[in-house]
Amino acid sequence: MCNIDVTGLSFAYRGRPVLTDINLKVDKGSFVVILGPNGSGKSTLIKLVAGLLEPQQGTVHLDGLSPQTYRKQGLMGYVPQNYGNNTAAFPATVEEVVRLGVIAQQPRVSRTAARHIVDHMLSFVGIAELRHRRISDLSGGQQQRVMVARALAGNPRLLLLDEPTSGIDMEASARIYELLASLNHNLGITVLMVSHDIGKATQYASQVACINNGLCYFGDSKHFRSHYKESPHSWYYGA
Amino acid sequence: MEIWQYDFMQRAFAAGMVTAIVCPLIGMFVVVRRQSLIGEGLGHIAFAGVTGGYLAGVYPAVAAAGLTVAGAIVIEIIRRRHSQYADMGLAVVFYAGLAIAIIFSTLVRIPGAGMLSFLFGSIMTVSQTDLLLIVATGLVILAVVYCFFDKLMLIAFDEDVALLAGINTVAVNMLFSIVTALVVVTGMTVIGILLVSASMIIPVAAAHVLKLGFRATMIAAVLISVFATFSGLVLSFYLDIAPGGTIVMTSVSMYTLMLIGQAVQSFLSKTRRRQLVLPAQK
Predict the structure, then answer these.
(1) CA atoms of B130 and B136, how far apart (whole Å)
(2) Is there a contact between A164 and A193 (Cβ–Cβ < 8 Å)?
(3) What is the crossing angle of helices A94-105 and A140-152, to 10°?
(4) Coil vs helix vs strand at A12
(5) Which of A52, A71, A134 sits opposite B166 (nearest CB)?
(6) SS3 A107
(7) Residue A9 and residue B204: Cα distance in Å, rounded?
(8) Average pLDDT over chain B, rounded to whole?
(9) Rounded to a whole number, what is the distance in Å from the CA of B269 to chain A's nearest CA?
(10) What pLDDT is stored for residue A84 in this prediction?
(11) Euclidean distance between the first and final Cα of chain B, in Å?
(12) pLDDT tens digit string along A152-196?
């Protein structure tokens, strides 16, 4: 488990502000979904929390450590945006991709131990029968399960996901959310994910953070759902 | 057999086999990183190195290695700083290499045969020194691939994920660029500057048709490359033509045959499926 402490965070791309004075405290074992319109800074926030970008103002702490220090301990799993980059077309089997997650965190792991972890992860996310298939031959939902299995193979305390359900059908999307909720509930992994699917995301997440340059809303997902039903676009401007 | 009686053929085969193994090993990573044209650009810089070597009185292959490695470092720096226009940086270095080669070649009198052997490859001109350099460079490339295989694969898969795993992606990418430059220089003598990039890419493209995993695709690409190089050198000897062309055309033929095989297999499986569905509908 991991707690996330974001204080006074601001970030701009070439002078264009994307995030302004974000303050966010996520407790250990939470499942938080970040919502917001296109270009609102959701992916930027995830990358700042992951330490892939440096804050221009403010700080990010994970269990009191900087993201760069935290990730060196191998406690962070990251699932990047799948579509539009290399991963979906990568010429590797499911087993090879999940193994990358193991060797990324434990470079000196033995072959037998790595295989054992891969077996366990594939069974856990329900794709054990696909282990010898090429990832590019799988459906979008199956590919995302592989990505989650890879991220989990390093045994993380914090799982960061950037739109893991984009481009996949509703049924597959629901299965991904169920899997994340189960990881959060059964293993106590803190989950922070970006999504566009307000209905599904708020159904499974415990908390919601709405971003539109600044933080518009941060709180209980049930409260957000009831408010959102009354005013569908209120999250753009702050609930 | 007559072909094995000549020392120059023995050297050509030894150099060809080293090239056949290392080209697809690095080519596999080059393809999945979407940098298939990098070998072409580095080949032009190697050409500048060869002409520069003649001009400065340095052994051409050594001069080519030095300049190509320097060019690879510049390409990697541009790629990192201007990731959205990475191909633009490659094009700049590509044309600069060619321009320098043209300038150098007008400043020094290079024997026509010497120039052509570097451009198109030659089985006659692999000297003992060339062979030693090729074997030494090949061993360095094999050692890098063996030691950094997982890191290179993870970076090729997703650079952000690799960075989060604590991998020094800047250093590993730089090392990869240097090794790619060494592959180009290794293949230059036998295959030639103009086609060395094809030896990195075409066997990998052919192996991709088989739809295997990453390691299996890499092994298949090496086997295809070894077969193409062996056949190409034999053809080159008996037909008295440049080996670069015969090696690459053998690879292209294998790739084409594999694509045809794949299309036939797909057609047959569709027909079989249709035959299974039709009786069920009746």
Answers:
(1) 10
(2) yes
(3) 30
(4) strand
(5) A71
(6) coil
(7) 46
(8) 89
(9) 17
(10) 46
(11) 63
(12) 888 888 999 998 887 777 777 888 888 888 888 888 899 999 988
Residues B29, B79: contact at Cβ < 8 Å? Answer: no
Of B158, B166, B215, the CB nearest to A80: B158
Instruction: Give per-residue burial for A124-136: e unless 16+ CB within 10 Å, then b.
Output: bbebeebbebbbe
Number of Cβ within a 10 Å radius of residue B101 = 22
Give the tens place of pLDDT for each residue, B92-103. Answer: 888 999 999 999
Q: Where are the domains of chain B?
A: 2-197
Chain B partners of A155 at a C-beta cutoff of 8 Å? none
What ipTM was assigned to the predicted interfaces of this complex?
Answer: 0.81
Alpha helices for chain B (secondary structure H)? 7-32, 38-56, 60-81, 86-107, 112-120, 128-157, 159-164, 169-191, 196-208, 214-239, 243-281
Contacts of A91 in chain B (CB under 8 A): 32, 208, 212-214, 217
From the list B32, B157, B166, which residue is nearest A72 (CB)?
B166
Task: Using CB atoms, pick whichever of A80, A90, A91 lies closest to residue B160.
Answer: A80
Q: Which of B37, B225, B76 is nearest to B138 (CA)?
A: B225
Task: Determine whether B282 is exposed, middle or buried from the number of CB atoms within 10 Å of its CB (0-12, 13-18, 19+).
Answer: exposed
* Residue B280: pLDDT over 80: no
DSSP codes, B224-281: HHHHHHHHHHHHHHHHT--HHHHHHHHHHHHHHHHHHHHHHHHHHHHHHHHHHHHHHH
Residues found in chain B: 282
Residue ranges of B 207-226 with Cβ closer than 8 A to chain A: 208, 211-215, 217
Asked if A100 lies within 8 A of B153 by C-beta distance, the reply is: yes
Residues 35-74 of B with CB under 8 A from A: none
Burial of A234 (0-12, 13-18, 19+ CB in 10 A): middle
Q: Calculate how close chain A gets to B206, using CA atoms only, in Å.
A: 13
- B2-197 has which fold? ABC transporter involved in vitamin B12 uptake, BtuC (1.10.3470)
Q: How far is residue A79's CA from residue B161's CA, in Å, rounded to a whole number?
A: 8
Beta bridge partners of A4: A26, A62
Q: Please say whether the structural domain A1-75+158-239 has been given the CATH code 3.40.190.170.
A: no
Q: Parse chain A into domains and list their residue ranges.
A: 1-75+158-239, 83-155
Taking the Cβ of residue A71 and every Cβ of chain B, the question of whether any pair is shorter than 8 Å is answered with yes
Is A107 touching B (CB cutoff 8 A)? yes
Rounded Cα distance, B198 and B200, in Å: 5
- Quick one: angle between helices B60-81 and B86-107, nearest 10? 150
| Residue B154 touches partner A, C-beta closer than 8 Å | yes
Rounded mean pLDDT of A187-215? 88
pTM: 0.85
Distance from CA of A230 to the nearest CA of B (A): 39
DSSP A86: S
